[in-house]
């Protein structure tokens, strides 16, 4: 007997506000959700992603009842009083789901508009992170500890991903206010290192996708311009 097929993965519902999240952050929605799960986002962006997840869930309900209503009216079922009852009930459920979706969208807008305003007025001297800084902060965001070797006395940061970060780099990030250590733990056991709010904000801003312009293609020397076709 063959095992039952594995259920298909649930796809995230697309909301009408997805493009605005992508425009203001420079990341697609799936990436934003992943950053939220990894604790990379600052408080403001984390709140936005949480509200957007609620919107996506509400949009899923709207889509479900729309499809159900379409199926009920497709001719698949006998036209009788029971069908009319199911259609009426589905219409009521769709109306409730739509109201919940609209309420969730308003919450997303309330969280999104301040970020859009801040992005529009972004100062030109915002913190610039080097590639090494970005890599170190990204590794620390996934969990990291500072250890001191018992024999050599050398210190370094080991991230949960296995990446090692030099102590000098950690000191640089600490001085910049991007990371903080929990000094309540002994070094030989490992002192947890975490991003500060400023560190999360700097990492998030640094990883925004740059605007890429398509290169202009120059005509080859001596190439003639196309002429419109002559009418016969």
UniProtKB/TrEMBL annotation:
It comes from the Bacteria. Residues 211-232 are annotated as: Disordered. This is Uncharacterized protein.
